[in-house]
């Protein structure tokens, strides 16, 4: 049946709301069923999991926002389609779709959508761009998804907001001291604890654990005991690159992360030296793109989950076993550790009191929004610190950003960033200083600095928040002692693993990324002697798949 054509509504973003032509629809008809709906029929409801992919042949499909009394979001006409990234994540949908007039829809089963994306590139490209842009538009609009109410400068509220942001779950946050926040809390019976999160169907979560929040938000998927070709621990750039290449090459791939996709890079406000993105992109954008790619090729993502311990097989060639904190056990002949590093905590008087309530170890819109009209400090001298300083200085020109550097600005930072920071009028660089104290009442009022050259020389800076990017510690505590580390705790691989004298096999050398435990690989920041840059981590993750194929060949002999 030919598609009816009409010009797109002028208010619509053509990339987010493309129109498929007759040739596209003919491709879809080969795998879709055709369904008729009458005016007012519900096609899917907010909260429905695992929905199918719907394309309008005739009539119209109106999208409504149930969190705003079913307010109109958009109407899809002939050739247009419903859905965003949740068609790939398989999370419950956050909007409701209603037929307008007599409507004829092409319906592609959700479990066949990946076949469509991988086999029909002319459609795939437009769908992937549209899915991503629609979620971005919804998130920026702040009109759909979960409702979060809690004090702004509160550790628990920040944890909830950071988790939802990291897992690209649309939500609207209201400070519990605002009129909207007080009204919502009254409507919910004035719970004694906060934050409070309203999920689909009116379900309330009161100061939940991350696992409870993940279940309520539809992020958590049951993880049964299973065996895979490759298990990737860590969904930062190295882990996501490995998942994309592994899944695209037919490996049954599972990705685990203790929080969600993006890794440390997700806390970066702007990455400008990653090839292919001359205008730069945020860490969150990189995470969304990476996740969509790996899901498109069939990789599975499980988060939030931690590996309690990893065990070797009883004999060489036996699968490695991963015991997860959710109770599941995974088995795989190849495991990639891409857990990255964590920023070291700020050691200063009073610092612990304000963690995630004025002292932050990431710099995204979630944290920056809380201190929009306040001067802030950035502690560190690497690229992450520089990117944070630039973001904070440009998103609020009226604030002053103090860069606090132990030695000098430059040696550990890309030259373009150093020049940009030096030329930004509302960034003040303090070299040769350390933070000795953080002071305030319910929120930070000031920090005290001391000179490294003259410890008796001290000064205070009035400000509202401190963003910390100092040092790094690898996340490797779950690994057995048989996995060799260097003197800083990073994992030794390849020739460095052999040099320890602890490589156990006589019949082969380790792969370049293989640790002293056969079958266990390491990539990205967690690997000893690696370059701590996003591009390098992506290359490491790609190389890991070459190692996995080599291991599979060896194991099959």
Number of beta strands: 26
Radius of gyration: 25 Å
* Range of helix content: 25-40%
Overall form: globular
- Report the average pLDDT across residues: 92
- Assign the structural class, choosing from mainly alpha, mainly beta, alpha/beta, alpha+beta, or little secondary structure: alpha/beta
Biggest beta sheet summary = 7 strands, mixed
How large is the share of residues in beta strands?
A: 15-25%
Number of helices: 14
Enumerate the spans where pLDDT stays under 50 for 5 or more consecutive residues. 1-11
Distance between the termini: 54 Å
Explain what this protein looks like in three dimensions.
This protein is an alpha/beta fold. Helices cover 27% and strands 25% of the residues. It has 14 helices and 26 strands. It has helices at 22-29, 86-89, 113-119, 121-141, 155-166, 179-187, 210-216, 237-248, 283-296, 365-368, 383-395, 415-422, 494-499, 534-556; strands at 33-37, 42-44, 53-65, 71-76, 96-108, 146-150, 171-175, 196-198, 204-206, 226-233, 253-256, 300-302, 307-311, 320-324, 329-337, 341-342, 359-360, 376-379, 401-405, 427-431, 433-440, 444-451, 458-462, 465-468, 473-474, 520-522. Strands 10, 11, 12, 13, 14, 15 and 26 form a seven-stranded mixed beta sheet that branches. Strands 1, 2, 3, 4 and 5 form a five-stranded antiparallel beta sheet that branches. A hairpin with a 5-residue loop joins strand 8 and strand 9. Helix 11 (383-395) packs parallel to helix 12 (415-422). It is globular. The termini are far apart. Residues 1-11 have low confidence and may be disordered.
């Amino acid at each position: 049946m030919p598609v009816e054509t009409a010009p797109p509504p002028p208010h619509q973003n053509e990339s987010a709301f493309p129109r498929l032509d007759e040739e596209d629809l003919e491709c879809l008809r080969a795998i879709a069923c055709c369904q008729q709906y009458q005016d007012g029929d519900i096609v899917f409801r907010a909260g429905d999991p695992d929905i199918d992919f719907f394309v309008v042949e005739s009539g119209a499909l109106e999208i409504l926002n149930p969190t705003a009394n079913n307010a109109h979001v958009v109407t899809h006409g002939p050739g247009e389609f419903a859905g965003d990234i949740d068609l790939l994540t398989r999370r419950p949908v956050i909007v409701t779709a209603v037929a307008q007039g007599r409507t004829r829809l092409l319906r592609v089963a959700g479990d066949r959508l990946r076949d469509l994306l991988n086999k029909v590139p002319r459609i795939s490209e437009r769908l992937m761009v549209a899915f991503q842009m629609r979620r971005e538009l919804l998130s920026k609009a702040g009109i759909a998804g979960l409702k979060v109410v809690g004090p702004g400068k509160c550790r628990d509220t920040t944890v909830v907001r950071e988790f939802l942001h990291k897992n690209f779950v649309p939500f609207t946050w209201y400070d519990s001291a605002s009129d909207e926040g007080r009204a919502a809390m009254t409507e919910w019976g004035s719970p004694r604890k906060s934050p409070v999160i309203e999920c689909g169907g009116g379900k309330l979560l009161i100061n939940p654990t991350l696992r409870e929040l993940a279940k309520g938000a539809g992020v958590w998927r049951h993880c049964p005991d299973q065996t895979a070709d490759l298990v990737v621990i860590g969904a930062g750039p190295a882990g996501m690159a490995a998942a994309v290449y592994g899944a695209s090459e037919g490996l049954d791939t599972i990705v685990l992360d203790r929080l969600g996709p993006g890794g440390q890079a997700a806390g970066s406000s702007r990455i400008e030296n990653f090839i292919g993105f001359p205008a730069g992109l945020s860490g969150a954008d990189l995470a969304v793109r990476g996740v969509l790619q790996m899901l498109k090729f069939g990789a599975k993502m499980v988060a939030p989950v931690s590996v309690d311990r990893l065990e070797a097989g009883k004999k060489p060639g036996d699968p490695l076993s991963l015991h997860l904190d959710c109770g599941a056990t995974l088995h795989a002949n190849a495991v990639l550790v891409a857990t990255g590093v964590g920023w070291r905590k700020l050691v200063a008087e009073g610092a612990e009191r304000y963690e995630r309530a004025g002292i932050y170890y990431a710099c995204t819109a979630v944290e920056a929004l809380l201190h929009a009209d306040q001067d802030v400090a950035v502690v560190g001298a690497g690229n992450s610190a520089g990117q944070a300083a630039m973001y904070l200085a440009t998103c609020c020109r009226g604030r002053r950003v103090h860069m606090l550097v132990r030695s000098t600005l430059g040696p550990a930072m890309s030259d373009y960033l150093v020049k940009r920071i030096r030329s930004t009028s509302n960034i003040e660089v303090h070299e040769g200083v350390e933070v000795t104290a953080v002071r305030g009442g319910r929120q930070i009022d000031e920090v005290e600095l001391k000179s490294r050259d003259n410890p008796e020389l001290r000064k205070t800076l009035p400000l509202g928040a401190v963003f910390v990017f100092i040092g790094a510690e690898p996340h490797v505590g779950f690994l057995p002692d048989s996995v060799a580390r260097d003197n800083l705790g990073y994992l030794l691989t390849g020739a460095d693993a052999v040099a320890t004298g602890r490589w156990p096999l006589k019949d082969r050398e380790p792969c370049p990324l293989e640790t002293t435990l056969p079958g266990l690989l390491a990539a990205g920041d967690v690997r000893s002697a690696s370059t701590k840059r996003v591009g390098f981590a992506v290359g490491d993750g790609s190389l890991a798949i070459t190692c996995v194929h080599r291991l599979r060949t060896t194991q099959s002999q």
